Amino acid sequence: MRIFVLCWVFVAWIVPHSAFGQDEGSSADRGNTQAAVAENQAKKRAGPRPTEAAGAFLETLSDEQRSKAVMDFDDEQRVQWHFIPKESRKGLPLMEMKEQQQKAAHQLLRAAVSAAGYKVSTTIMKLEAILRELEGPGSEARRNPEKYYFTLFGKPTRSAKWGLSVEGHHLSLNFVFEGNQIIASTPQFFGANPATLKQDFGEGFEKGLRVLRAEEQLGFQLVRSLDDQQQAKAMLPGETPREIRAAGEAQPPNEKLPGLAAADMNEQQQELLRKLLKSYTAKMKPAVAKARWKAIEDAGFENILFSWSGATRPGVGHYYVVQGPTFLIEFINVQPDAAGNPANHIHCVWRDLRGDFGLPIK
Question: Is the pTM of this model over 0.85?
Fold first, then answer.
């Protein structure tokens, strides 16, 4: 009986302690698993690495397709850009790719922009189908969601400098890489027609959709927050422009427009200005956005100028400029949409005043 009791006590002691040891190991394993899952999720959010995405894209192409998709890094077409509809452009369009090739092209786009930038880019592409519906028969060739061209400049390797252009109607994204690092990301152009959908076009394109909502709405909020004295400084003289300046030119305009300095704004207005800037920088990869903000802060956020022209309400033409020592934003909404609704057609751009395309201004 004494032996049985001793054995029972030993078992009672060893089982929970053994189980405790196993639980500790399980917790550690779970911790390692959770860390691995978190790391994989972070990698997935970051998207594919640019050189690998570019290489994978090229591997899907035929020799004939490569001859269109790849150019020398110093080719003069690298700095030729525009957002208007064109019969043809440099590069290889999605409409000449098979499904697997299109997927690889989209992965390359994902590697160059943020998740928000990718969503906006692809939504702009899809708006072409809506324009085709609004404009009717005869617009098929002009309004094509797959008429977006991908061009690589140079050889995309981890040790080389190379470029990427993704362009079509209302979209022009231009990059220079050193290996996997983006060292230039301008001109960065987005446009939308219709800017606000006035009717329902089905799932994902319901009435009221605004592709570039933040860029316009925050601009309105900022200009409406200004008092009379501030507005006097912010309002540009003369008529409202018809288009952004230096559209399609290799370098941004060098004319500095008058405006209201951030230094002359109150805290709430400065916060609105920061949110407005972030609506543009957030479409780029986090490292690019961080570099842009560092340049802004180093040059002095207080030195940024905000300028406005036109109406301060939707449906009437309006235009704004945000300019700092290192960057330039221009936004314009003066054209009617394809259905004739006034001021429902946006063009907006971020440019590098130190030089677009990674080329210093001389």
Answer: yes
Separation CA 170–CA 253 (nearest Å): 20
- Quickly count: other Cβ atoms within 10 Å of residue 252's Cβ: 24
Q: Where are the domains of the chain?
A: 1-46, 49-184, 208-358
Please state at what angle helix 213-224 crosses helix 267-281, rounded to 10 degrees: 160
Per-residue burial over 112-137, b if 16 or more Cβ lie within 10 Å, else e, is bbbeebbebbbbbbebbbbbbebeee
Cα-based distances in Å from 309 to 11, 208, 316? 84, 25, 11
Question: Are 107 and 50 spatial neighbours (Cβ–Cβ below 8 Å)?
Answer: no
The tokens for 343 are 């001021």
Residue with tokens 């329902």: 200
* Sequence-distant (≥ 6) Cβ neighbours of residue 328 within 8 angstroms: 252, 253, 321, 322, 349, 350, 351, 352, 353
Burial 177-195 (b: 16+ CB within 10 A, else e): beebebebbbbbbbbbbbb
Largest distance between two CA atoms of the chain? 107
- Tell me which amino acid residue 187 is: P
Q: What is the DSSP letter of 358?
A: G
Which residues in the chain show pLDDT less than 70? Answer: 1-47
Residue with tokens 């009791």, as numbered in its chain? 5
- Separation of alpha carbons 156 and 75, rounded Å: 15
Give the pLDDT confidence of 48-88 residue by residue, as tens digits. Answer: 899 999 999 999 999 999 999 999 999 999 999 999 999 99
